[in-house]
Amino acid sequence: MSAQPEGPTTAAEVSAPDLRPKFITESERVRECRPGPVHGAAFLAAPQPMLLVGRDGVIVGANAAARALLHGEGTGPLVGRVAADLLDLGSDPRTQDAYREVLRGRQAPLGRTRRLKHAAGHSVWVRITVSPVPGAEVVLLSLNDISAHRDLQAGLRHLQTHDPVTRLPNRALFFERLTGALEAGAYEGTGATGRVGLCYLDLDGFKAVNDTLGHHVGDRLLAAVAERLTHCADLARHATGAPLVARLGGDEFALLMEDSTGTEQLADLAETVLEALREPFDLSGQLLSVSASIGVVERDVADASPMGLMQAADTTLYWAKADGKARWTLFDPERNARRVTRQALSSGLRPAVERDEFVLAYQPLVRLEDGGLRGVEALVRWRHPEFGLLTPNRFIALAEEDGSIVQLGRWVLETACRQARAWQLAHPDVAPVFVSVNVAVRQVWDSDLVADVARILAETGLPAELLQLELTESAVMGSTGRPLRALQDLSDMGVRIAIDDFGTGYSNLAYLSRLPVSVLKLDGAFVRGFEDGASAPTEPADALIVEAMVQLAHRLGLTVTAECVETLDQADRLRRIGCDTGQGYLYSRPVAAERISELLAERR
Ligand code: C2E
Ligand code: MG
Ligand code: MG
Fold it and tell me: Can you identify the CATH homologous superfamily of domain 345-602?
């Protein structure tokens, strides 16, 4: 680097300038315009690197600072060289055109940022401004070394896009890359696969590590996991590069595979990751084992958006956790559709009660001795405007979760009681049928069931003896306080309480007999156990158990109803065992109220 003038060209460099700073007045301009030795000296000594370039693009003058920047050992003098070559102003056509226009004196100043080789050998970022010099046959190129600024910017960007704990790209950079991958993949004919894949990973039990061993150890574990993930990504490197490993926050990581070839490739990657994490981590002598759950999504970029892909990955990760952790799970569109339906159903429940979208079906409860109709069970259905007729297993649990069961249950109770009363009035000559209504646990807890029942009986005029309420074992087990009082009040009113699906829980009969319960409904599983038929040499174990149960129930003053009676053989055996009532497809499926009316009319 030399600040000495360049030998024979010095005269040209000194005499050339018609340098008019923009801030000078018109009268001053006349004075300033006159070329003179002062201007030349100022140009030469200015700390900012400057070049003067003739209309032909050849450098005609360079100051000391410019030479210090650009004139390295082995490079010839600056004067006489083509500026565009030296400063890379000809490589892209737009810059080339704009530069030419300035040279011809037809355009305002032009600015470009270029990475140049410094005379000392290292590279520098330079802001080049090309300004016309009116009245002179030259243009002025001033060069600004902005390397420090660029370095600072790059440093800032690195900080903004990387996670300090693991040094991995962070969420921001991950989304930038993901968005970029989807946009790039959308252009056809680039030779890429047009697909993208994602492994979304969450450590199992990381919170426990943090809580018991401290954040310090937690951080070191995360850094060690990051290292192994990076190694896995390296192993999975393919033609267009290795998958991007990012920390999305907490103990969540992602591996983004651009140009993926299919689910198999992503599954392989997930398997490699699980394998890599299997080996315990040695954190300064402390051995720690962790596992991870991974959600895997792979799809055509045409069908993907960053948010959609992340949502799918999130759902899939949740499945991996729910399915038992320490595994990878592949996104399953059908399973997702069920989840979405569930959500749609859940949000539609409350308004559906108001819109009257529910209907009741009634299933006969038959005396086993003579096949006579004793009562009916009211079973709710949802006439869903979009999904059609839905059975209760699709929505009762959801209604219990969000509490809408209280409102729905009240509607069921009211409708069933009104119907039972209507049958009683319409068929005065036959023994009236009772109606059995299912009651959810939350109805006992979250609403005043006793008041509801009393009001509905009064409003419909249905005698309390014609109402039976079915509760599950779990609802009545351990009943103390409010629920027990409710059961007692209902029973005192004359309403019968039945235990539904009996035998699936853990209740014991002796305990139940102390509650105000009068009917046991044996779960269908017991009746199904009868399949072997009467010809079997020994009675199947189920039959023996049922027989013992029925006898005990009778001794405790309870009557027994068998659910899911489907064959004559089952009905026979149940009758011989002493079971009182049967319900099932053998007698009738759940049917509309009108069909029950017909049955009653036939009995006359
Ligand atoms: P659940 O109270 O045990 O009702 C009996 C279920 O068994 C009914 O299913 C019925 O259609 C079915 N079933 C009857 N006979 C047979 C048979 O012979 N074979 C077979 N395989 N199944 C038979 P459904 O209508 O789908 O109701 C399912 C469950 O939904 C009910 O079981 C009950 O727990 C609940 N549920 C129905 N309606 C209501 C309601 O209004 N409120 C509440 N909280 N739960 C209800
Ligand atoms: Mg029931
Ligand atoms: Mg049942």
Answer: EAL domain (3.20.20.450)
Ligand 1 pocket, residue 364 CB under 6 Å: no
- Domain chopping of the chain, boundaries: 11-150, 162-331, 345-602
Question: How far apart, in whole angstroms, are the C-alpha atoms of residue 113 and residue 125?
Answer: 7
Q: Cβ(590) to ligand 1 under 6 A? A: yes
Chain centroid offset of residue 405 CA? 27
Whether residue 255 has its Cβ less than 6 Å from ligand 1: no
Report the candidate in 228, 297, 304 with the shortest Cα–Cα distance to residue 267. Answer: 297
Neighbours of 491 (CB within 10 A): 17
Kindly tell me if the per-residue pLDDT of 405 is higher than 50: yes
Residue-level pLDDT at 529:
77
Closest CA to 40 of 69, 70, 60: 60
User: Is the shortest distance between the CB of 398 and ligand 1 below 6 Å?
Assistant: no
Centre of ligand 1 to C-alpha 580, Å, is 19
* C-alpha 175 to ligand 1 mean position (Å): 48
CB count, 10 Å around CB of 142? 20
In CATH terms, is domain 162-331 a member of 3.30.70.270?
yes
For 164-272, strand residue ranges (E) read: 195-204, 244-249, 252-258
CB 238 within 8 A of CB 179: no
Percent of the chain with pLDDT over 90: 67
Distances (CA, A) of 174 to 186, 243, 487, 560: 18, 11, 58, 63
Please tell me the number of Cα atoms within 13 Å of 220 on its side-chain side. Answer: 13
The verdict on the CB of residue 380 being under 6 Å from ligand 1 is: yes
Ligand 1 atom with the shortest distance to the CA of 412: 41
Superfamily grouping for domain 11-150: PAS domain (3.30.450.20)
pLDDT tens track for 313-347: 999 999 999 999 999 999 999 999 888 888 889 89
504 CA to middle of ligand 2, Å?
13
